[in-house]
From TrEMBL:
<keyword id="KW-0732">Signal</keyword>
<feature type="signal peptide">
    <location>
        <begin position="1"/>
        <end position="18"/>
    </location>
</feature>
<protein>
    <recommendedName>
        <fullName>DUF2845 domain-containing protein</fullName>
    </recommendedName>
</protein>
Length: 89
């Protein structure tokens, strides 16, 4: 029991990590989803698409930015799949 409590306390004090899903109304976008799935679930194209480059300048992915009422939601794509979801307030 003490071990369980210690583990829960340790998890509660960890810094916030990237989200693995985001809800657009009743639809949920999750890591692993394709670009088409994100557009369908969001109900629209992203407001902005930013190319992600490596140190040599080669494109390695995209960041799709959706500007919502009180926040921005970014979906990072690599190899045609969502690998990261971040909410910015």
């Amino acid at each position: 029991m003490k071990l369980l409590i210690a583990m829960l306390l340790a998890l509660a004090t960890m810094p916030a990590m990237a989200d693995f899903s985001f809800r657009f109304g009743d639809a949920v976008v999750a890591t692993g989803d394709s670009p088409g799935t994100v557009i369908r679930k969001a109900g629209r194209q992203p407001d902005r698409i930013v190319q992600i480059e490596n140190r040599r300048g080669a494109t390695v992915g995209e960041r799709w930015e959706y500007y919502l009422e009180s926040k921005q939601v970014n979906f990072e794509f690599r190899d045609g799949r969502v690998v990261d979801i971040r909410e910015l307030r």
